[in-house]
Design a protein that fits this description.
mainly alpha, about 10% strand, elongated
């Protein structure tokens, strides 16, 4: 066997051993792509404060070299590349109608992800209020050291009744300040 061929086979075996294995989720839309092709099909834009975006290089004219060229820095300006042009209203409506038509024609399989209601949307206000009362009862039962229990209850209540909690914290802070000042003056 030729030494060059043997070396090539060893390199290939090494590459195969450590090549990355990529797994995609069902319905994945973003896949690895060639950078040169991506940049060439994109356009280069700059967005300055309080102005409309300005095209620096149109589609098909952008290269990696042009992308890497230094540009004068303008405070607040953002330079970016854009691969696609936004759809107008008619094209977007047509696209959505095609999607709806496809979804009606094809039965969805079991592996399709369907977003459901969140946990807080499934639980009514009354059960949340009862849960908050049970959390408050932890203070009376004394299962947790007083300050930690109070802090935990405030955190739970803050999620649901944040305006009331803020006022309670301000009142408690004012009371503590008044007590400390009174002790200092006494």
């Amino acid at each position: 066997m030729n030494p060059e061929t043997e070396r090539s086979q060893r390199h290939r075996a090494l590459l195969r051993r450590f090549e990355p294995v990529i797994h995609y989720t069902n319905g994945e839309h973003f896949f690895p792509t060639d950078v040169d092709t991506y940049v060439q099909e994109s356009s280069l834009w700059v967005l300055r404060l309080d102005e409309q975006p300005d095209c620096l290089s149109p589609e098909g004219k952008l290269t990696l070299e042009k992308l890497a060229e230094p540009r004068p820095e303008i405070l607040g300006a953002v330079t970016y590349i854009k691969l696609i042009k936004p759809l107008d209203v008619a094209a977007l409506a047509s696209y959505r109608l095609k999607q709806i038509g496809r979804s009606l024609l094809h039965k969805k399989d079991q592996n399709t992800f369907r977003a459901g209601l969140g946990r807080l949307a499934r639980v009514g206000y009354s059960s949340r209020f009862v849960d908050a009362l049970f959390s408050l009862s932890l203070l009376a039962r004394g299962r947790v050291p007083g300050n930690a229990g109070a802090a935990a209850t405030l955190v739970l209540l803050f999620e649901f009744f944040w305006e009331i909690v803020v006022m309670a914290v301000l009142v408690a802070g004012g009371y503590m300040l008044w007590e400390n000042l009174r002790e200092l003056w006494a």
